[in-house]
Design goal:
Blueprint (H helix, E strand, L loop, with lengths): L1 E10 L2 E11 L4 E5 L6 H8 L7 E6 L2 E2 L5 H6 L1 E5 L10 H5 L1 H5 L4 H14 L4 H4 L9 H13 L5 E5 L7 H18 L2 E5 L3 H7 L2 E6 L2 E6 L1 H6 L4 H6 L5 H8 L2 H4 L13 E2 L4 H11 L3 E5 L6 E5 H4 L3
Bound molecules: adenosine-5'-triphosphate.
Adenosine-5'-triphosphate (ATP) binds next to strand 2 and helix 1.
Protein name: ABC transporter ATP-binding protein
InterPro entries: AAA+_ATPase (IPR003593), ABC_transporter-like_ATP-bd (IPR003439), ABC_transporter-like_CS (IPR017871), P-loop_NTPase (IPR027417)
Keywords: ATP-binding, Nucleotide-binding, Transport
Length: 310
């Protein structure tokens, strides 16, 4: 678990991070969101001691990180940034192996880990391992960046706008890969983003910053349903906030699993978003969809009236 306790960091006279108190539970994803300049990146850099706070404390599993050497701390944490930062003269496999090599892992263990990770992020090892970064697309480089950050099984993965530079479909595919990896590995992730959809898709918890202050935390559904103030509402879409709320809620939240009536068509997963369900209703010209819960096979029905919360 990572705990921020009244953490403050100023640059000149400006408080970039102002008395932030926040706990990120082990095995969860926390998305730091807020407008440009609200202090997201600064807060993230305080975690791996690229910066130190002027006030307050950050604890990793109860231990104040001020007492942990930055080099040791960074080996325990993956860090992914928008510009990726791959070493251009090293192959993909050498890049991914950076931290395991530093930690002195045996060669066979490193080779196995690199192949496993490339697979995990959707890059075929036999095709990509020997390539150099400039022989990859931007999206593939981002995948290598994620694989490298995960290489030594970090306790914590810090991500600063990791997918900012790729096109929207690639970005969604990277988000899906990351969510699947997180589910599998249980890594704790703190991700900085100013992309509302990314925050909703990935963030188990949102932490909303404004002028360095933490103004709201909660699940995407809770924050979108009850934004703390007008700025938060505006950040999450203003008049379009309701549409984003549909992204944050699942079909299973609104479907009726006791309805015995049979509805034809391809069932939608109970864990799909209500937005996906609405898109299907519009495309298919229907106000009812069959639903299946992939976890237990239960079937139900989603009605348009329930979807919009009537
Ligand atoms: N190294 C620095 N020197 C001086 N001021 C800085 C430095 N880093 C950040 N700041 C200032 O601190 C404030 C917060 O910046 P930060 O980069 O943390 O915001 P952010 O929310 O990540 O923004 P963005 O979404 O644009 O990346 C800004 O006013 C910024 O100008």
């Amino acid at each position: 678990m990572i705990e921020f306790e009244s953490v403050t960091r100023s640059f000149g006279g400006t408080r970039a991070v102002d008395e932030v108190t926040l706990a990120v539970e082990r095995g969860t994803i926390c998305a730091l969101v807020g407008t440009s300049g609200s202090g997201k990146s600064t807060l993230l850099r305080l975690v791996n001691r690229l910066l130190d706070p002027d006030g307050g404390r950050i604890r990793l599993d109860g231990v104040d990180i001020a007492g942990i050497a930055p080099v040791e701390l960074r080996r325990r944490m993956g860090y992914v940034i928008q510009s990726v930062g791959l070493f251009p003269h090293w192959t993909v496999e050498r890049n991914v192996a950076t931290v395991p090599l530093l930690l002195g892992w045996p060669a066979a263990r490193i080779a196995a880990r690199v192949a496993e990770l490339l697979d995990l992020v959707g890059l075929a090892p036999d095709v990509h391992a020997r390539r150099y970064p400039d022989e990859l697309s931007g999206g593939q480089q981002q995948r290598v960046g994620v694989a490298r950050a995960l290489a030594a099984d970090p306790e914590l993965l810090l991500m600063d706008e990791p997918f900012g530079a790729v096109d929207p479909p690639t970005r969604r595919s990277l988000q899906d890969s990351l969510a699947a990896i997180q589910k599998r590995t249980g890594t704790t992730i703190i991700i900085v983003t100013h992309d509302v959809e990314e925050a909703i898709r990935l963030g188990g918890t949102l932490a909303v910053l404004e002028h360095g202050r933490l103004v709201q935390t909660g699940t995407p559904a809770a924050v979108l349903a009850h934004p703390a103030n007008e700025q938060v509402a505006r950040f999450f879409g203003g008049p379009l906030l309701g549409l984003h709320l549909l992204q944050a809620l699942n079909v299973g939240n609104r479907a009726n699993f006791t309805d015995p009536s049979q509805v034809g068509g391809e069932p939608i997963d109970a864990d799909a978003s209500l937005e996906t369900a609405l898109a299907r209703m519009i495309a298919e010209g229907t106000s009812r969809l069959p639903v299946v819960n992939p976890a237990n096979g239960r079937r139900g029905v989603l009605e348009l009236a329930e979807l919009v919360g009537l």
